[in-house]
Design brief:
This protein is an alpha/beta fold and 282 residues long. It is built from ten helices and twelve strands. The protein folds into two domains: 134 residues, Rossmann fold (3-Layer(aba) Sandwich), CATH 3.40.50.10860; 139 residues, NAD(P)-binding Rossmann-like Domain (Rossmann fold, 3-Layer(aba) Sandwich). The strands form two sheets. Strands 2-1-3-5-6-4 form a six-stranded mixed β-sheet, sandwiched between helices. It has a six-stranded parallel β-sheet with strand order 9-8-7-10-11-12, sandwiched between helices. The radius of gyration is 19 Å and the shape is globular. The structure holds 2'-monophosphoadenosine-5'-diphosphate (ATR). 2'-monophosphoadenosine-5'-diphosphate (ATR) binds next to helix 6.
Amino acid sequence: MDTAERPDRYAVIGHPVAHSKSPDIHARFAALTGQSLVYERVLAPLDGMAATVRDFAAAGGRGCNVTVPFKFEAHDLAQRCSPRAMLAQAVNTLRFDADGWFGDNTDGAGLVHDLQHNAGIDLAGRDLLLLGAGGAASGVLGPLLAARPRRVVVANRSPDKARALVQRHAPWAQAHEVELWACGLDDCGSGYGLVLNATAASLQGAGSPVSAAVLGPGAVAVDLMYGPAAQAFLQWAREHGATARDGLGMLVEQAAEAFQVWRGVRPPTAEVLRELRTGLTA
Ligand code: ATR
């Protein structure tokens, strides 16, 4: 077969990776946009992520998503990074350009797009509480600030990590005229319009790591995870009168952003998100 006729290859590389919905999402995007590509799951050993990515590129891969726990390492693999990936210091999308690998982070843009376009939540002027200061929080903080809320408070179990994250984003926050603060989980204040859970607490079935006082009237509470991992936090939010949203929309929208990085076209997402939701609840 002539190589020019082969579909372009992409993959999600992680550990674990068997649970990933990305191959299904990108297959639907390819069909909806008429793009010729295949998208696989590739399991990388914990100490062999770089070699796995290089092997995939050498075998003809055009780009890949990188997922837990490799997003920080992927940042070091890229020769060039988007401004949002540099701010996050983490990469979830690599494009194997001939003149050097390009790294991007589409998580935050995916979250903001889901909140603003799918959930109809205008972030401008809101008070946001971001719980967590690990990889997930650092991937979304820059794009959240760029949506120009009034104030963002980053609260973390280890307050020093929240302070470091806030310090790194201070010039970006200033450029977008957003107040940005760091604190611990016990002193993060009350009455927020939007509370985002980017901690791993819900993985442990822990509900919320903060008191319900953080939820202002009409608050929206979002867990960046989806499926069973998000349920404890979402249930806590509903029990305290907030509107709850999981991270499934973010998952689809970050994939759409990655697809655009690779293919130059942003696929439609509404139908794909609907299909995934049906699959989840079936
Ligand atoms: P991820 O890439 O998913 O963000 P991570 O970088 O390990 O994973 O970060 C996990 C985050 O969840 C951290 O903010 C962590 O707090 P610490 O920095 O203090 O470790 C937070 N976290 C994990 N378990 C938690 C719990 N039971 N309660 C509150 N926060 C928790």
